[in-house]
Amino acid sequence: MDKINFRFLFIISAILGVFLILYGEWQDTHMEVRYTDVDYLVFSDAAALMASGKSPYERSTYRYSPLIAALLLPNSFLHHMWGKFLFSASDLLVGLLIHTILKLRGVPEKLCTSSLMVWLFNPFTFTIGTRGNCEPIVCAVILWIILCLMNDQLVQAAFWYGLVHLRIYPIIYALPITLVLHPLHFQSGKKPALVDWSSRKLMSLNGSSKLRFTVLQFIRNFLTSIFTWRGLVFGFVSGSIFFILTGLCFYFYGWDFLDEALLYHLTRTDPRHNFSIYFYHIYLHYEQEFSSLEKLISFLPQFIVQLALIFRFAYDLPFCFFVQTLTFVAFNKVITAQYFVWFFCLLPLILPWSNMKLT
Prior knowledge:
This protein has helices spanning about 5-30, 40-50, 65-70, 75, 80-105, 110-120, 125-130, 135-150, 155-160, 175-180, 200-205, 215-225, 230-265, 280-285, 290-295, 300-315, 315-330, 340-345, 345-350. It is an all-alpha fold.
């Protein structure tokens, strides 16, 4: 491990990504089971429609932001593998951001390398990008937001957070970000007091006492975080970006955009390729029409768990993001394989504080 450094891992991961993309082309041509994710075909078709001046929502099952189709426009005039290389490059960018965040938190280089390998060489993560799924882009945005907050770049963090327009699930991070913007964490001229490597032993001895607070303190800190200039700036900038993008998409694509990219995901049920705890119930009753209330009430366990985790872990932002995402996926009524990538990108950020032995 001493001879393995970040640059070496980065190069090997890039070579592996290129190999898998090229292998995927061969498998798609010569084998019955395709390597390419069906979502990539949907993205490509939507991008082709957009390139010809039509709505991407004319492609059935395209239920994403038009920005995803826009990113894949070169598929139509450059090469059909453009999107795969873009997503795989995002995989590498996620690795770079993980390494940068760990170094900023004071983690030793050897442990940084071990933690980074959990992302770069995780079969789940590198196949998701090379098969043509867009999740690595979303992961890169989330990590960039964390990095911006660590560097006290509030406006930039807010700008990128407004891009939850790409995927709606990062809205669950709004509350812990707001709490971290409390003046105790963002003092004038200083970086936020996110937990660093040097404090790990002290925290374990004190039982993370700094992170324990009463319900009244939680509510008070939340309200004072909102009504500070930092909280207001973050909310205004991120909200403006989100609503501007949503408004533009609605202007160009109308209700098709709102129904397919946003509202559909609130009431979605899926009896196939689903790892959800609700799967069997949905499978048995799929022929029956679920009421809107039944579809929405499944969010209640998610909501309760999210509040409990934020209440307990908000001031260790990377760890809070991880457990929030893990439980959000676990309690979601629809789970597909790419959802696991949402929390896999955050796992290396917390491993240095874990008692698990990596080497």
